[in-house]
Amino acid sequence: MATTWVVDPVHSDVQFKIKHLVISTVTGAFNQFEGQATATDGFEDVTADFKIDVKSIDTKNADRDNHLRTGDFFDADSHPEISFRSTSWKKVGDDEFEVTGDLTMKGITKPVTFKAEFGGIEKDAYGNTKAGFEVTGKINRKEFGLTYNAVTETGGLALGEDIKLVSNIQLAKQA
C-alpha cells in the first residue's frame, strides 16, 4: 500500500556548494521549499516531487544573493522555481537508493541522478510518523544555463562548474 509523505521544512534543509577561485568552497542554501513523496512501506518504490523558491537563496551575503537572483545566474523573476520530479527510485544498498528524475532550473530540464541515504522512520513527541533522508549529488551549472563567470587577475575562473547538492529531508506521514 502506498503512503503519502510531505516535506517537513522545519526539520529539512537544501544546501549547495561551489568552488570559488578554485581554492575554497562557498556554501549556500535555499530556505523555502516544499515537496511530497508517495512511497510503499520501506521506501522500496517512491515517486517524489520537490520545488524550491529561487528567491529564498541564502549565501550569508546580501549582495551575492541579489546577484544570484539576476539574469547572470538564476533569473529568479522569470524562473522563480527549481523543480525535481523523480522518474526512477532504485535500492542500491541496505539504506541507500539511487533516485533519478527531471531537474528544471532556469527553464531547462535535464535528467539527473542523486544518492538518497535512508535515515529511518520514527515517531516524534506528538505521535507523528517521520522519515529521514540525506540526498546528495552533483550537477554542472552550465547545463542549466548558469554560465556566468568572472576571470581572476591571474586568468583563472572565479567559479567552478560543478555544484554539489546536499539536502537533509524529513518527511511527515500523512493520514
Written description of the protein model:
The chain is 5% helix and 59% strand. The chain is built from one helix and eleven strands, in the order ββββββαβββββ. The longest helix has 8 residues, at 62-69. The mean pLDDT is 88. It is mainly beta. It has an eight-stranded antiparallel beta barrel. The radius of gyration is 17 Å and the shape is globular. It has one helix at 62-69, and strands at residues 2-7, 13-20, 24-30, 33-40, 46-53, 57-58, 81-91, 96-105, 108-123, 129-140, 159-173. It starts with a strand and ends with a strand.
Number of strands: 11
Distance between the termini: 13 Å
Oligomeric state of this protein:
single chain
Classify the secondary structure makeup into a structural class: mainly beta
Q: Which consecutive residue ranges, at least 5 long each, have pLDDT under 50?
A: none
Brief descriptors of the model:
175 residues; mainly beta; 11 strands
Chain-wise SSE layout:
Blueprint lengths: L1 E6 L5 E8 L3 E7 L2 E8 L5 E8 L3 E2 L3 H8 L11 E11 L4 E10 L2 E16 L5 E12 L18 E15 L2
Antiparallel strand pairs: 1-4, 1-11, 2-3, 2-11, 3-6, 4-5, 5-7, 7-8, 8-9, 9-10, 10-11
Brief sketch in words of this structure:
It contains one helix and eleven strands; from the N terminus they run E-E-E-E-E-E-H-E-E-E-E-E. It has one helix spanning 62-69; strands spanning 2-7, 13-20, 24-30, 33-40, 46-53, 57-58, 81-91, 96-105, 108-123, 129-140, 159-173.
